[in-house]
Write a structure and sequence with these properties.
It is a single chain. The protein is mostly helical. It is 89% helix and 0% strand.
């Protein structure tokens, strides 16, 4: 439960920060985060395929 409260608090801080920066900056940061998550997902999928074959 404490983890959930901390996550919601962090989400509120991040959303508050995004509300004060220009749209272009938040769009660029959102794109960077999306690319980072896509790379992470691809690496995890590739690693799981490699493990299941052995």
């Amino acid at each position: 439960m404490l983890f959930l409260v901390a996550a919601l608090l962090l989400l509120g801080v991040v959303l508050g920060t995004v509300a004060h920066v220009p749209l272009t900056v938040s769009s660029v940061l959102a794109a960077v985060i999306a690319v980072w998550l896509a790379v992470f997902a691809c690496r995890e999928r590739h690693a799981r395929r490699g493990r299941s074959a052995n």
